[in-house]
Amino acid sequence: MKNLWIAAACLLLAANRALAVGGIADVTIYDRAEQRILPMYYHDGRYYVVGKPGNEYQISIRNQQPGDILAVVSVDGVNAVSGETADWSQTGYVLSSDASFDIQGWRKSLRCVAAFFFTELDNSYAARTGRPDNVGVIGVAVFRKKPARPLYREEAAQSRRDAPAAGAPLADETASLAEKSLGTGHGRSEKSVVRYTDFERASATPDEIIAIYYDSYRNLVAQGVIRETPRVALPNPFPHQFVPDPS
């Protein structure tokens, strides 16, 4: 039985590579409200971004390989395409060589998504569907495509006989938090067109797993992810022109 995957349209990604994570694929988090790529903070082997409650965001993925890749995308432990509790064996987005795609929300159909936005944990889609345990992390499991095997004449003839008829469809933090943790909400509907395609993985396990954690600025400071720079007083040697009377 053939697997069906979503094929993303080829879009150019204007992203700062220094703010991306990944090798086979570059992944960035873009704040759509502030129109900027969110900087990554590296702490204890993890990457973090600061989310601002109410702001919509998107996950931008760029294929850096010469062949097709499959990106299975998880948000708060939920598959962003199917809505299932995430597993890397599930459906995802197929990107051709050097192509990129902006994943702006939860996939609702082949033509639209429900926008991602930062919100309090209790209002997150995962929590509202009874799955709050993994709120606060974005994951991308990347698979390379299995190389095509050359067909000899007899095999090619059999392959043509087995082909589908025309018109068939294509296949645990311990630090004290300063405020409530963030999750990802199920927002407004917007257009995002994709199509089905076939993809056979080269391996049953991902060639790369990218994880990006997120929370509010205050919580990331409380957890030690972000170290605030102490404010240094800079006294003015000439604050006034004349000598005032003492109080």
Q: Can you offer a commentary on this structure?
A:
- By secondary structure, this protein is mainly beta.
- It has one domain (5-222).
- Helix content is 8%, strand content 34%.
- It is built from three helices and 16 strands.
- The strands form three sheets. Strands 1, 4, 5, 7, 8, 9, 13, 15 and 16 form a nine-stranded mixed beta sheet that branches. A four-stranded antiparallel beta sheet has the order 3-2-6-10, with no helix packed on it. Strands 11-12-14 form a three-stranded antiparallel beta sheet.
- Strand 4 (41-43) and strand 5 (46-50) form a beta hairpin.
- The longest helix is centred in the middle third of the chain and has 10 residues, at 153-162.
- The chain is elongated.
Which descriptors apply to this entry?
247 residues; single chain; mainly beta; 4-stranded antiparallel β-sheet; 3 helices; 16 strands
Topology:
Blueprint: E1 5-7, E2 25-31, E3 36-37, E4 41-43, E5 46-50, E6 57-63, E7 69-75, E8 78-79, E9 93-95, E10 100-103, E11 105-107, E12 112-120, H1 125-128, E13 137-144, H2 153-162, E14 182-191, E15 195-197, E16 208-215, H3 217-222
Parallel strand pairs: 1-9, 5-16
Antiparallel strand pairs: 1-15, 2-3, 2-6, 4-5, 6-10, 7-8, 7-9, 7-13, 11-12, 12-14, 13-16
